[in-house]
Design a protein that fits this description.
Blueprint: H1 2-29, H2 35-59, H3 70-74
């Protein structure tokens, strides 16, 4: 379940930065802002924040050093 929330967090914040950047660039160039782009940026922000909070809530009860398994760090 933690992987799902991590992927949702990444996708949400990625959508926020992509569509937010598009709306900022359109505003700077003087093009009309489309409501769909702003809605997608806000949806991405909401999904990113909500999934990040869920992810923190799932890993909050773990001791600090055990959030990353030793198998994952041995290969790095």
């Amino acid at each position: 379940m933690k992987k799902f929330w991590a992927i949702a967090c990444t996708l949400g914040f990625s959508a926020f930065w992509v569509f937010g950047g598009l709306s900022v660039l359109a505003f700077m160039d003087g093009h009309p802002l489309f409501a769909a782009v702003l809605v997608l940026a806000l949806l991405g922000l909401m999904v990113g924040i909500w999934s990040r909070l869920r992810l923190v809530a799932l890993t909050q009860d773990m001791p600090r050093g055990e959030r990353v398994r030793q198998e994952e760090t041995a290969h790095a």
